[in-house]
Write a sequence for this structure.
């Protein structure tokens, strides 16, 4: 994008549940002309009034690990942003544990207008939730219980899965192709509208209502079965370190150089107590 071109309108679409200091630091590092839309987990102790007043804040859904409510919270914020007075060009889906890896004022130079930046893989994909199909085929208790982080419900969830498998109670897959990837992405306005308005989006959301990790197939499947499929850049432009024993890594000062060199839009995970001075270093580098 040249200097003479009109600047793009950006907004952050943020889901969060903890670390108010990090959330507000992220907001305060965002250019004044950007929109900021935040959903706080209904179970969180964070109050809407704790969030920097620049942001439009929702606290509507209780979000457990793997719950479809995480996806629904994102879609709700996208819908609000689409219907706001400002016509945003780009919608950046992140969490409160993300931070800018590139100076936000430089996003326009990196973005090809009209393209969406989404990690996208065709299913079957080995090693990804039953090659990606388990998400659609098997029912889960994730919407109401911590099936991954609580030992009791983890056992119950595994039992529930095995019952469905043994007795062939799986749901039928849709006739359209399935794609998978991370929910964290940067969407052009037309792609964001497809996620809200498209018939496949509505059908898929219904199919996923009692699933686990719905967010990891929804965006990719909807967009790749739409007119936006040729506008997808298969890189979500997030710097994430998956090399540790329990990934993703909480980033710290030692990751600074790699983050800067990556030229990604955002980096994660960031924690105000575990990441040291990393956000200050990134902020200084972007001034």
């Amino acid at each position: 994008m040249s200097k003479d071109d009109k600047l793009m309108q950006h907004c952050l679409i943020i889901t969060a549940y903890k670390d108010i200091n990090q959330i507000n630091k992220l907001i305060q590092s965002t250019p004044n002309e950007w929109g900021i839309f935040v959903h706080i987990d209904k179970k969180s102790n964070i109050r809407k009034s704790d969030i920097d007043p620049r942001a439009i804040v929702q606290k509507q859904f209780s979000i457990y690990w793997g719950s479809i409510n995480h996806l629904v919270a994102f879609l709700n914020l996208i819908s609000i942003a689409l219907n706001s007075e400002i016509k945003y060009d780009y919608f950046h889906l992140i969490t409160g544990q993300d931070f800018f890896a590139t100076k936000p004022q430089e996003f326009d130079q990196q973005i090809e207008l009209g393209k969406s930046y989404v990690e996208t893989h065709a299913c079957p994909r080995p090693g990804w939730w039953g090659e990606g199909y388990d998400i659609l085929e098997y029912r889960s208790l994730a919407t109401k219980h911590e099936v991954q982080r609580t030992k009791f419900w983890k056992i119950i969830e595994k039992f529930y899965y095995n019952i469905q498998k043994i007795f062939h109670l799986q749901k039928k897959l849709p006739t359209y192709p399935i794609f998978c990837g991370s929910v964290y992405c940067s969407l052009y306005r037309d792609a964001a509208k497809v996620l809200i308005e498209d018939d496949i989006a509505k059908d898929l959301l219904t199919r996923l209502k009692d699933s686990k990790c719905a967010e990891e197939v929804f965006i990719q499947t909807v967009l790749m079965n739409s007119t936006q499929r040729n506008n997808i850049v298969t890189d979500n432009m997030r710097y994430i370190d998956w090399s540790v024993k329990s990934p993703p890594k909480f980033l710290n000062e030692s990751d600074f150089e790699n983050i800067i060199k990556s030229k990604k839009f955002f980096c994660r995970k960031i924690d105000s107590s575990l990441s040291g001075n990393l956000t200050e270093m990134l902020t200084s580098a972007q001034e």
Remarks:
- The first strand starts at residue 10 and ends at 16.
